[in-house]
Design goal:
Elements (H helix, E strand, L loop, with lengths): L1 H5 L4 E6 L14 E2 L4 H8 L4 H22 L1 H4 L6 E5 L10 H8 L8 E3 L4 H4 L5 E5 L3 E2 L2 H14 L3 E3 L3 E8 L2 E8 L4 E7 L1 E5 L4 H4 L6 E10 L10 E4 L4 E6 L2 E6 L17 H15 L7 E11 L15 E3 L6 H11 L8 E6 L1
Parallel strand pairs: 1-7, 1-18, 3-13, 11-17, 11-18
Antiparallel strand pairs: 2-6, 3-5, 4-5, 8-9, 9-10, 12-15, 12-16, 13-14, 14-15
Length: 354
């Protein structure tokens, strides 16, 4: 859409592999986050403070762009509170709240993190401390995707679904993109002056030389819980676990840190070890006062670089551009899309998305 806004006469097409997007675009938990306190502190062990501030600013700017472009009502955006649960081993993080608040102050203009221990008992959690994050919200992933598609079509962007891209070849004046027509067992080619590869976790299939690996995220959803005492979004264990209230249910995901190697995959399957841990933490940490079983479980994908926090780039070559994204990819993806919309003299562009 940024391309179309800047170059309204340019013909732009999106090649979507599925009938509906089934990668990170729709298989995510709907968190609109800048990062929890323990996640920021973990990043400080490996990154300069200035880089972390820039990254948080990028996340906040991306979320602002999304809300400005689509509107809160269309994407189901809500701010019902955001909190982090701390275990015994994470209690030392409380001594650094003021330090991190001061570091991030230029972005929100208010303290990002505050103690909220008085809410532990009303919420029913089994945790040692609770921190409130004043800069986060949640959204409805399906509504967001529908709004994005509707707006793109309204602006004149063509969206071709069921187009699995097998590969591309650079030509003298652009690129030729080869698409599988599975129902006819043949291929068809499209030509464009410029090509953007936005396949995130699947980027290496089309850009094998790029340092992008997939990351799989797993979530479960419970049955409706009568009288669920909390709303909003929650994190714990450096952001590796996250949950939120969703229409009277609990959506709970994470656990990738239990099996980094096993979760570096695009296989559409559940990790039994992670599933077991999610169910255990649901029973013992989140709702120890209630007995139930999860009703649904699913996985989603995102793209990682060796340094997933800072090593992001939009331009691979002048003709072919790739945009991989990390776990907070939604906000960063919006910022990356603006970078990919730089002006040039070409009159057509193809974007490939999974």
């Amino acid at each position: 859409m940024t391309l179309k806004e800047r170059h309204p006469r340019r013909r732009i097409a999106v090649m979507e592999r599925g009938v509906l997007p089934t990668g990170a675009s729709t298989r995510n938990a709907g968190f609109a986050c800048i990062g929890s306190l323990t996640e920021i502190l973990a990043d400080l062990q490996f990154m300069p403070a200035a880089d972390i501030v820039n990254l948080v600013a990028l996340r906040k700017a991306g979320l602002h762009l999304l809300r400005e472009r689509l509107g809160d009502e269309r994407i189901g955006y809500r701010e019902n509170g955001s909190y982090e649960l701390l275990s015994d081993k994470e209690l030392p993080a409380l001594d650094r709240i003021d330090e991190v608040n001061q570091m991030l102050w230029p972005i929100p203009g208010v303290p990002a993190y505050l103690r909220a221990d008085e809410k532990i008992k009303p919420f029913g959690f089994n945790t040692k401390a609770l921190i409130e994050n004043n800069c986060e919200g949640e959204l409805h992933t399906g509504k967001m995707m529908r709004a994005l598609i509707d707006l793109a079509i309204e602006k004149g962007v063509e969206i071709k679904t069921g187009c699995e891209v097998l590969g591309y070849e650079e030509t003298g004046d652009g690129a030729e993109v080869v698409v599988q027509r599975s129902w006819l067992h043949e291929t068809i080619s499209f030509n464009a002056g410029r090509l953007a590869i936005c396949t995130n976790a699947f980027a290496k299939q089309l850009l094998p030389a790029e340092d992008v690996t997939p990351g799989r995220g797993q979530v479960l959803i419970t049955k409706p819980i009568p009288g669920l005492p909390f709303r909003g979004v929650y994190h714990f264990d450096e952001g590796y676990y996250y949950f939120r209230e969703l229409d009277g249910r609990i959506l709970f995901g994470g656990g990738r840190n239990l099996d980094f190697a096993g979760e570096t995959t695009t296989e559409l399957a559940l990790n039994a070890r992670i599933q077991s841990q999610l169910e255990e933490k649901l029973r013992t940490v989140i709702i120890p006062w209630y007995s139930l079983y999860c009703r649904y479980a699913l996985v989603g994908y995102y793209g990682l670089r060796r340094n997933e926090k800072t090593n992001r780039k939009a331009a691979v070559r002048p003709l072919v551009r790739g945009c991989p994204h990390g776990w907070h990819g939604r906000s960063n993806r919006l910022r990356c899309s603006k970078a990919a919309g730089r002006p040039d003299g070409l009159n057509s562009q193809i974007l490939i998305g999974y």
